[in-house]
């Protein structure tokens, strides 16, 4: 018989070993597999998505926005590099916030990350659809078939087991980086920065001869480009979700996170400079493109190789899609194991020990949102409206979670100074505070674009449903999972599962 314990406004149930045995994970990831998981989760943002910010801020606006967002992510990743080995639970951000702010703080942070990862997967598979259509010459109406095929294939691959999943992530991430490297090297002899990167005039018009202003939309353009600059780094923060599948999270997690962040910073500034500068491409065209890297390859090598080049360019999208399915699977798994979500979602496969139910449910949820946007907005709206709306939904969830994670870091330093911290952030509370400030500014800017307010409103509805569920049902069904036990003990001890 289960024992119940009341703590504040929530009720915990103490379960037997069989509960955790049905929800076991396997340890396999070292530093480089973690690095690949983090970089792989993000790298698609260097292939598609970031470029939509050129239409909002021009090249100069996008540059400054990228610098600001890079500062935000440095503050975030250094904070995570400190928190994750101190609290090595698969709950990641939810478990950190749970310790700092209690069950409601943990749940709201977990709900925000749930939106982020489920919708990030949706954005990536949307762009896979645009690339896939370009490869086979399919009409735009066929794109939902590519989405379904993508989910089926990569949920299936993640189902095979963490060892196979992480090995594939390493291989495909390296291939994606090699693809970007080939583009960077190929682009250098074919760039004319002033003529093409600066071909947006004041107010957003095309300048056929280029040499336009660095900031065609002024200072406002910098702020408007912030949500799109996020796409160059979004999801690197997923690595703590792999803590219970890491061989030595206290040693490997900080190294994996920071190596991944510095890799992404280098690639982000290279793609921002080179892709719009390629002769025949330009910032104006890329501002509405669903396949910016492919546009660059086409301009360099010609249309004759378009299909082959598209197949190469899609590797980045595949790398991220695979890694994000891993992320949302573990994120749903951890909240379910602790009782915040229905418990059945955290059951893992008997021998493979993968959270297959969580991955399938996350895929179905992502597809449902995509198809709703597709039919409501209209299939003919293209990447700027459909892809941009999905992207902003993911970014909104991410920004809310970053605010909570920055505040969590500060609160943990204040309330729990005794927790063992194998790694300490060199930026400390200043880095966490910058994360909170820049994330809040980004949220504000998302609310200024009427096209994307619709998507943000859907996310708000998602939050409302989740909050009502937790208030009425979830808070009475919590489980003393590892992260909950750690929080209940105020960091004095960690609950161990076999």
TrEMBL record:
Principal subcellular localisation of the protein: membrane
Keyword Zinc included in the entry's annotation: no
Membrane topology per record: Multi-pass membrane protein
Transmembrane segments annotated in the record for this chain: 29-47, 59-81, 117-138, 144-161, 168-188, 217-236, 257-284, 304-328, 357-376, 382-404, 425-445, 451-472
Annotated ranges, domain Amino acid permease/ SLC12A: 45-473
Keywords, in A-Z order: Membrane, Transmembrane, Transmembrane helix
Name assigned to this protein: Ethanolamine permease
Gene: eat
GO biological process: transmembrane transport
Cell compartments where the protein resides: Membrane
Classification via Pfam families: AA_permease
Entry GO terms, CC: membrane
Record's keyword annotation contains Magnesium: no
